[in-house]
From TrEMBL:
One of its GO terms (biological process) is membrane to membrane docking. This is Vascular cell adhesion molecule 1. It comes from Serinus canaria (Island canary). The chain crosses the membrane at residues 492-516. CDD domains: Ig (cd00096). It is a single-pass type I membrane protein. The lineage of its organism: Eukaryota, Metazoa, Chordata, Craniata, Vertebrata. GO terms for cellular component: alpha9-beta1 integrin-vascular cell adhesion molecule-1 complex; apical part of cell; early endosome; endoplasmic reticulum; external side of plasma membrane; extracellular space; filopodium; Golgi apparatus. It is found in: Cell membrane. InterPro entries: ICAM_VCAM, ICAM_VCAM_N, Ig-like_dom, Ig-like_dom_sf, Ig-like_fold, Ig_C2-set, Ig_I-set, Ig_sub. It holds the Pfam family Ig_3. It comes from the Eukaryota. Keywords: Cell adhesion, Cell membrane, Disulfide bond, Glycoprotein, Immunoglobulin domain, Membrane, Repeat, Signal, Transmembrane, Transmembrane helix.
Amino acid sequence: MGGTRQAVLVILCVLRTVKAFEMEIIPAERIVAQIGGTLILTCNTTGCASPSFSWRTQMDSPLGGEVSRHGTYSTLTMNPVSIVNSHSYLCTVTCDERGKKEKSVKVELYSFPSDPIIEINPSLVDGESATVICKIPDVYPSDRLEVLLKKDEHVLHEKNFFEDESTNTETKFVTYTYHPMAEDAGKELTCVAKLPIADMDFEPKERTSSQKLNVNFGPQNTVITASPGKSPMEGDSLNLTCVTQSNPPAQIVWRKYLAEESIQHLIKNNVLFIPHVHFNDSGRYICEVINLVTAKTEEATVDIIIQGAPVITKFSIEPSTTVQEGENVSIQCSAESNPPPKIILRRKSDNADIGTYSARSILLPSVMFQNGGDYECVAENKYGNSKREITLNVKYGPKSTVITVFPAALKEGETVTIKCTSSGNPAPVISWKKKKATGESEKISENATITIQNLKSQDLGLYECEAYNQFGKEEKAVELYVPARLEGPDQMIPLIIAFSSVAAVAVPAVAILIYVSRQAKINGSYSLVKALRLKV
């Protein structure tokens, strides 16, 4: 009995030390593989020192892989995995006296290798039709593919391929046409591709790609800002800034309307800077913006009015500041300012306005020498005033020639001064002549004043003054004589006799004239001869 028990114990120990013959496939039962990747199936055994392996598909299709043995296990490597590997694979292991065993694993395939690719063709332009293409490369099975096209969070387009019957990988395209707007610039366009196969375990099942929208638009909403304002003071600096919305940035050209309605081109910059404005900088400024991509243009305008005290821009005498008496003369004074100036033109010596006008001329027809002198132009407004002077020089021939003799009552032996004065422009040249007994005139001096020392009888006589310049001449004459003097009674007698004789003749003559006058009134006419006869 004891020996039997020992034998039984030995057999039990041997049985415990010998492992059972087992096999497994790694991974087990079901595996999901991506087409294009690498898949290794391992058939492993235990409890068999020298197993033999064989691989096959349940449909006896080609393995589509490479079998390798490594002692107690065998591998089936599929690199790359292709559509032909979509099978259930069976591994059979034979272990001599222990028999054989089989196990299978199902290989399921998918392909979702990369993110979508977004193509926008052509470049986006505001308001113009554009095509967006979302490309999903090498998808399998495509009948499970779902695609969303979104702008930010807004869904633009949605598509699925449920009715697709493709049995291999395919690149799928989703095309969408829409009209982008300017406000879309900078927003994200996103393509979301989903491959939602519920009973397959793989990641990711969703892939996305995004692209910022670059929408070409404009120019639009163009405005001009003026600093310090649209009505700066004369002499201030002025900044005109043109702001517009445009993609790509617009080209900017400044222009200005001139008085004759033509256009003056200024700078190509969004800021027009005038360091010291003048009144002639007033006007309408135009900012023209051009988008070369969209071929669109837009304009903005601003009216600038320069304010300030008047500035006299013209003060002139036409045809010249020096004229000849009798010519027509125009005196012109103009000024600029804002508000418009009051302009006063006057001759300074008159202390009175000749006239008030704006940017016109005053005509002095047939100018006279009295019109010569300094003229003043005054321009004024609420900001101040401006003054300028100009001189009108009137050329004329000699006038108002006068001779003076000192002393007035002459006596022989005295000193006598004779002076000739005359007005004219240029100042007249004075010359003297004296008449001789023969009646001829003799030039005696070219000075305005003649001085005769110790007056004698031969100094008496007629003196002629001539005043002349290039515009004419004027002559005046004076006779020097010494009045007769009565020195005694002998001289009085002849004078009394002479006076009596004149009176004796004059009284009857006056009586006859009175009589004739009365007869003429009665008869209407009268004959002096007949009257004398009647008297006789």
